[in-house]
Amino acid sequence: MKPGGAELKWIDYSSPETLAEALSLLNEHQKDAGILAGGTDLIVKMRADRINPGQIIDIKSIPELNQVNINSNNDLTIGSAIPCYKIYNNDDIMNLRPELKDSASIIGGTQIQGRASFGGNICNAAPSADSVPLLISLGATCNVQSVNGERTIALEDLFSGPGQTVLEPNELLISITIPKKSDLSGANYIRFIPRNEMDIAVVGTGVSVTLSSNKKNFESVRVSLASVGPTPIFVDGIDKEVSGQEINDESIRVVSNMAKNASKPISDMRGTAEFRQHLCEVLTRRALITAIERAKEA
Questions:
Q1: pLDDT tens string 182-197
Q2: Exposed, middle or buried: residue 277 (CB in 10 Å: 0-12, 13-18, 19+)?
Q3: Domains plus CATH for the chain?
Q4: pTM for this model (two decimals)
C-alpha cells in the first residue's frame, strides 16, 4: 500500500535489444507504457504520481537510438537516447554544430547530463525544455517510427500542449536530424533562471542566423522561445521582415521586438508575464548578437 492507503500498481519492466521488439511492446501497451532512456523525467513523474504506467520499456540499449550519423550532405542525425554529455564530447557533432553545447551542457547538472537525452527532453514536452528552442531555430526534424511505418515531423510542429505531443501512443522518437550548416551561419541558446537552485528557464531563447556573403546583411533568421507559452514558440515571420536587411541596431531591435510580441507568458512563482516579455526582448537580442558573431567567424 502507498502512504494514505492507496493500492500499489504492478509494473512490468522490459529492456528490448532491438527496435522491432521495442516498437512491438509499445504497440501492445500504448498509453500504459512508460519509455525509459535516462529516466530523469519519467522517474520523477512516477514518484509524484503524475503518471502510473503498467509497462516500462527501457530503450537505452537499442543501437538505432544511440547512433550519430552524418550523411553525404552533412545533415546531422542524433539518436534520441544519446545522453547530453556524449553530445558535447563528440568531436564530429561539435565540428558540425558546436552550438549544441549551449543546450546540452545546461540540462541539469553533470549527473543529469550523464543520463538525460535530447530525445527525452523533447518528448517530455515541457514548455521550458532547454534543448528545444535551439533545435527549432536550426530547423530540426523528428524521425518517428511505429509498427505501422515511419514519418518525419518538424520539431516546431511536434508539441500540442504542456507535456503533450502529436505522437501517436504507439510511436517512438528514433532520432533528431539537423540540416547541414550553411556557410556564414551561427546560432546560440541562452536562458534566464531565478537562481542556480531552480534550474528551470524563466525564459529561453534559441537563435540561428545566416549572413550574406559580405557579412553585412541578414540572409536568414530563426528564433524560438521557451517558457513563454503552453508550448515552445517558433517566432514566425522574422525572415520575411529582415531578410536582406543590413545588420544594425535597428534590424536587431526588430527581431527582438518580434520575439517579445510572439510570447504568451503567464505569471507564476518564477516571474511575472511582463517580466518574461521583457526578457524575451533582452535574451533574443543577446542571442542574436552572439549568433552573428559566430557566423562572422565561420
A1: 999 999 999 999 866 5
A2: buried
A3: 12-58 (3.30.43.10), 63-178 (3.30.465.10), 185-297 (3.30.390.50)
A4: 0.95
